[in-house]
């Protein structure tokens, strides 16, 4: 433990020694490690699953009804301490177990407890959402370069603007409608841009993307 972590030679050894086991593998391979986990799991072990689409019932069917499962949908932004974790728990998870996991997740982001029935829906607003933003950034940057900007200069301007916009949404006390309305000046540039995007189906594209994301999450749970 000199470096603050220990490397185990097998999943079996790791699960036997851990009070909380974090499962962060893809839905496509999770079934293949279940038997190793089942043999090593104690009644006290808390199982924190980050795997999209896999529900609490799925774990209970493989590990037993009494297993303590917390399902979590994380975001890649935890890497910079700004994670947004959506969690739900099995009835077998005590408040103390839950608080321990919440404390651990809170070290790198915010934690919201949500009904398990919304765990696939939430992927579309947290887990996958950073990619929507990165994709939008790529499109905007492409246009910026076309207009003559240096790419890194445009990136700094755009990303800082988005960071500030998110900060205002979270901490200004103003609603998203009020904030948008503040920019919708009659005859102004912003309104012209929003009208053009609206006419080309921007809102509809976003809604359809969100729906596709949720559907895929549900399919992953059935693989
Ligand atoms: N990426 C994201 O932003 C988000 C991901 N998620 C969820 O997190 C989970 C992991 O995603 P992500 O980290 O991106 O995926 P990666 O493919 O980057 O990582 C998968 C990990 O699983 C390990 N692994 C694969 N097969 C086995 C196995 N048989 N036994 C043990 N370990 C194995 C891999 O180890 P090795 O490298 O050694 O092969 C790798 O560390 C997914 O379920 C995804 O739905 C949720 C929200 C956001
Ligand atoms: O794309 C995926 O399947 C995972 C879930 C959320 C983000 N990445």
UniProtKB/TrEMBL annotation:
Documented EC number(s): 1.5.1.2
Pfam families linked to this entry: P5CR_dimer
InterPro entries reported for this sequence: 6-PGluconate_DH-like_C_sf, NAD(P)-bd_dom_sf, P5CR_dimer
Gene Ontology biological process terms, A to Z: L-proline biosynthetic process
Entries under SUPFAM superfamilies matching the protein: 6-phosphogluconate dehydrogenase C-terminal domain-like, NAD(P)-binding Rossmann-fold domains
UniProt KW Amino-acid biosynthesis keyword: yes
Matches recorded under Gene3D superfamilies: NAD(P)-binding Rossmann-like Domain, ProC C-terminal domain-like
Example of a GO MF term: pyrroline-5-carboxylate reductase activity
Keyword entries, A-Z: Amino-acid biosynthesis, Oxidoreductase, Proline biosynthesis
Domain (Pyrroline-5-carboxylate reductase dimerisation): residue spans on this chain: 116-220
Coiled coil: none
Protein name: Pyrroline-5-carboxylate reductase
């Amino acid at each position: 433990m000199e470096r603050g972590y220990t490397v185990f030679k097998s999943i079996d050894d790791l699960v036997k020694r851990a009070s909380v086991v974090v499962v962060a593998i893809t839905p496509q391979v999770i079934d293949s490690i279940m038997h190793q986990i089942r043999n090593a799991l104690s009644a006290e072990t808390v199982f924190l699953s980050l795997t999209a689409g896999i529900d609490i019932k799925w774990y209970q069917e493989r590990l037993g009804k009494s297993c303590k499962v917390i399902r979590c949908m994380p975001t890649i932004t935890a890497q910079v301490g700004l994670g947004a974790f959506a969690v739900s728990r099995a009835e077998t998870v005590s408040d103390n177990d839950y608080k321990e996991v919440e404390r651990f997740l809170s070290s790198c982001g915010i934690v919201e407890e949500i009904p398990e029935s919304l765990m696939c829906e939430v992927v579309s607003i947290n887990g996958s959402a950073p990619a929507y933003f990165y994709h939008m950034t790529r499109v905007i940057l492409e246009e910026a370069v076309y207009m003559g900007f240096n790419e890194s200069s445009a990136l700094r301007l755009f990303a800082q603007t988005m960071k500030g916009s998110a900060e205002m949404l979270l901490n200004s006390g103003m609603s998203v409608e009020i904030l948008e309305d503040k920019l919708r000046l009659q005859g102004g540039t912003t309104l012209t841009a929003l009208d053009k995007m609206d006419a080309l189906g921007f809102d509809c594209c976003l809604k359809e993307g969100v729906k596709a994301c949720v559907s895929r999450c549900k399919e992953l749970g059935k693989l």
